[in-house]
Each structure stands twice: as structure tokens, then as C-alpha cells.
């Protein structure tokens, strides 16, 4: 693993943070970060493990911005720009070539309104939404009902989105913002 990721994992263990980015997801983020030309944003910094994967993949000169609600965790991960606050603060510095929605803006819970990719992304920019289990049916279901958050992103009119299974129990959605017609 890249040294920056190893340091972030050590910080997460020291602070008792158990929800860090898994290596399967991290490698995907690292690859996607390499395609960003100017800016990358992430919600839900945690202790900076996902952010470390993004930083190891990003080209020199690409701006990385992350937002974390918990001030202590934000300070732990502060090797790059980490804003303290709710996820929507990333809009202050939009647009981005890549946005990773991990700590808000996904719409998985009622009080979390989904992010607007047209506002956050450059045309051709990508959004990543993780922490799904691989879908076994169409339409995808969660707890016996249609998986509305997943369907929101898979059918979003501003995006072309695909589900990528990363492990037996882990899938990620990656969407590319359509170009204006």
C-alpha cells in the first residue's frame, strides 16, 4: 500500500475510526484520481484513508478538497485541504473533475439530500458513490424493496452511471456527467 495510505490507516486505528475506505475501493479511487485535471472533492474524510488513496493517484497540481463533520477527524487528515462541516460545503469550491460521495450527498437516509452532479461536476467529470452490496436483480433491491438511492444514481438524467462490484460484499457506482447538448 502507498505510504500515505499506511499513515492514514494508522491514524484511523489510533483514533478508533473503523469506517475507513477498503483497499478495493481505494485502488479504484486511485485510478479515477489520475484522470482529474484540476480538482477532486470528497465528502466524509474520516481519518483520511480514502483521501490518501485519492492523493496518491492525483497528478501534480490537482487540488484535493474534503469535508468532514467531526473536527477532530478533520485535523487528523489535514495533510490536504479539509473543511469542517456538512457535505454540501464542497459546493463552495465546485466544479470538480471527480467527486467522491462517502459522507453525505448520497441520499441513503431521509435527511441526506442527494448531491446535484450538474452543480458539482465539470462536464465529463465523475461521481463515485460507494458502500453498496452488489445488486443481484434489476431493479436492485435493499431490504426487500427497490433500492431508491441506488436507482437515483443509476437513472440520474445528468449522468451515465455503472455499478462496479469490487468484492463479494462491496459495490461502487461511478457516474460520468453528460456533456450539455
UniProtKB/TrEMBL annotation:
InterPro entries: SAM-dependent_MTases_sf. SUPFAM superfamilies: S-adenosyl-L-methionine-dependent methyltransferases. GO terms for molecular function: methyltransferase activity. One of its GO terms (biological process) is methylation. Transmembrane segments: none annotated. It comes from the Bacteria. Keywords: Methyltransferase, Transferase. This is SAM-dependent methyltransferase. It comes from Streptomyces cylindrosporus. The lineage of its organism: Bacteria, Bacillati, Actinomycetota, Actinomycetes, Kitasatosporales.
